Amino acid sequence: MTWLTPMVGIVAASIAASVLIVLYLLKLRRREVEVSSTFLWSAVIRDMRANAPFQKLRKNILLLLQAIALALAALALAQPGFMGERSPAETTVILIDHSASMSAREPDGSGGTPTRLDRAKEEARRIVKAATSGMSFTADRPRAMVISFASSPTVLVAPTSDASELLAAIDSIGASESMALLAPAMQLAEAHARDNPTQTRIVVLSDGAFADEEASQAPLDAELEYIAIGSGTVDNAGIVSLRAQRSYDKPERVTVFVAVDANAGARESAEIELTIDGEIIAVRRTPLIESETTGARSGAVVVQFNRLRSAVIRTRVLSEDALAADDEAWIALPPAAQPKVTVVTTGNPLMERALRASAIALPVVITPGEYIERARRGAIIADVVIFEDFSPPDDALPTGSYLSFGPPPPIEGIGTTRDPDQSGSDGSVSAFVSWRVDHPALEYAGLEKVRISTAHSFEVEDQRDVIARLTSGPGIVEIDHDGRRAICVAFDPLDSNWPFDRGYVLFLATAIDYLAGAAGAEATTQLRPGDTLATALPPSARDIQLIGPDGAFIEPTIRERQLTHTPLRSRGVYEVSWRGAGERGDEVRDGRVVRRFACSSLDPSLTALRVYDTVDLSEHPGGLASTAPAQSVPRSLRNWIILGFLGLILFEWYVYHRRVEL
Asked: Which of 432, 460, 563, 588 has the fewest Cβ atoms within 10 angstroms?
């Protein structure tokens, strides 16, 4: 038995006992009243005898009950207690992980399958009840606060002694679909420990599957405890990779690649369902092959189909397992649209005719003066810009993709040493002597037949950028620097026989497609829960909307034609739409330009559902904080004593009225 405030109880008991005895010994002054008979007053004559001062106390049940009640009140003020589990810290900071892995279900041994988050919340309730059980009449009462965290932390309750408020906050924590980052949560707890003059205890409730790249720093002056939640011995399979690619020569042909992982000791195979815009197009089963190093099993599925329009591709693992967050994945496939091409020329009808013959581009033809004026205003909207015997000034060359004939654009890494070389006095001409046959832009160019009368002398810093050579030097160069990507041809097509060969048309088509593909979005970009959605909007965009996977409107942040939204809280497809002009890969629907983004987990560490017994907190004096039981400290019995006091007062009231009736 321990006593928190024994002196308060002793003083209170002394005063109460003295007052009670004096009240029973002092004689009461009564008002005289004449009555016809004293027979009815015989029951109270005994009380009158006790009113004479300094007489010996007589046996009285009311006196006994009142004395016991006062003793209980004094005992409550002394705050007796017993040794129980509670941190000695005056403030307990509870960090509860509610990331995607905490949604995993595990059997509890009694037929139920609670999630790890359910177990963490139950443990947090126990900690709150223990941390706030102490009683005191001073301001320094034991307190607790609750912080939930996944990709970012949230303070649910500031330090308080109100257990009901803390328990309500714990009950309100819902599952998140994002990864867990411990460092931001520890920084928030550290800020509290730094500002709090009392001793602080920090308790982390998690499975330890943190995505932090570096160890999190714990407050050096705080008591730290990590409680591992979960067993890790569960069966789970999930999608860890999803890609969709259009064929280079047949854009309508789409290939989808799906990779599946299963944790160690799991199933032998997995069945994958693939849907397009809600319609099932394939169900495939893949064997899961065990890794010799990790023991995990993995497999893959490849599905091909034809699709010219945009589509939302959804894949799903057709089996029930411990975690649902990794069973589905989405990807947004853009339409097979033609690239937008702007041709800057003083007049070359052969190039415009060749572009139309290639059936890959619909060119916009402008003069060099028009281009400079538009470029400086930021009004050039094109996937590829073609310069024909023209090199723009540096301030009129924004980031983008370019195809140049003649002088190269002002991009670092390429330049000219002198005026274009003329053919020799003997009438000889330049020809290609070598080229990279594996380069997509040169595959069908037919360079072996090309003869050039005049060519610029390129000076290239890195010879690996040269993809075709003339007898006189570099003939075709691919350069990429500071967001400017270009294929530079050293001569004007009109100074060669190339425009009269079909290889010229094929070169234009393949080079434009190659450059546009490098600049445009492909259906391999994936967002994850907790990431930031960011996309640049065209200058004419207006009435901009962002719709989440559940169909609800989201208020995005728009600054300088850049739309952002963070963090992404749900898996699925997010849709950005506006009125105005679109860009390559955008879809037009009901008069609005639509751009879609897919958000999926795709995390092998999530699918593994590992539970870590220790957490690396290298800056903490203890090094590794492992699971440990709470320390044993006094727990007050004051509430129970007060309850007994109230019950005794009610009983004394009952006895008093029974005596009066007698």
From this structure: 588
Q: What is the pLDDT of residue 658?
A: 66
Average pLDDT, the chain: 80
| 473 and 367 within one domain | yes
Confirm whether 21 is domain-assigned. yes
* pLDDT attached to residue 448: 92
**Confidence at residue 108, expressed as pLDDT on a 0 to 100 scale:** 81
SS (H, E, C) 86-137: CCCCCEEEEEEECCHHHHCECCCCCCCCCEHHHHHHHHHHHHHHHHCCCCCC
Range of 361's domain?
341-520
Domain identity same for 33 and 160:
no
* Angle at alpha carbon of residue 170, lines to 166 and 176, rounded to 5°: 150
**DSSP letter for each residue of 529-587:** TT--EEEE--TT-EEEEEE-TTS-EE--EEETTEEEE----S-EEEEEEEES---TT-E
- 191 and 275 assigned to the same domain: no
pTM comes to 0.61
617 and 644 part of one domain? no
* Cα–Cα distance, 322 to 264 (Å, whole number): 13
Asked whether residue 304 falls in the same domain as residue 192, the answer is no
| Structure-block tokens of residue 611 | 């539970």
From CA 203, how far away is CA 87, in angstroms rounded?
10
Asked if 346 and 445 sit in the same domain, the reply is yes
Q: How many domains does the chain have?
A: 5
> What is the 8-class DSSP label of residue 223?
E
User: Of 337, 358, 374, which closes a domain?
Assistant: 337
Helix, strand, coil percent values for the chain (each to nearest 5): 25, 35, 40
Please, which residues have CB within 8 angstroms of residue 476's CB and are 6 or more apart in sequence? 435, 442, 466, 467, 468, 487, 488, 489, 490
CATH number at residue 353: 3.40.50.880
The string of pLDDT tens digits covering residues 552-574 is: 999 999 988 899 998 898 999 99
> What sign for the dihedral angle of Cα 621, 623, 625, 626?
negative
Q: What is the CATH number of the domain that holds 116?
A: 3.40.50.410
Give mean pLDDT in consecutive 10-residue pieces for the chain, a chain of 662 residues.
62 65 55 67 56 54 70 70 55 93 88 91 91 54 88 91 92 93 87 72 91 59 84 87 80 89 80 94 92 81 89 93 93 81 85 70 84 90 90 91 93 80 55 90 90 92 92 92 90 90 88 70 71 89 94 92 91 94 79 92 90 70 42 59 71 64 46
Helix/strand/coil for 8:
helix
Residues 7 and 67 in one domain: yes
Whether 312 and 596 have beta carbons less than 8 Å apart is answered as: yes
CB-based contact 514:552 (threshold 8 Å): no
Q: List alpha helices for 196-288, DSSP H.
A: none
Tokens coding 103: 């949604």
pLDDT of residue 187: 86
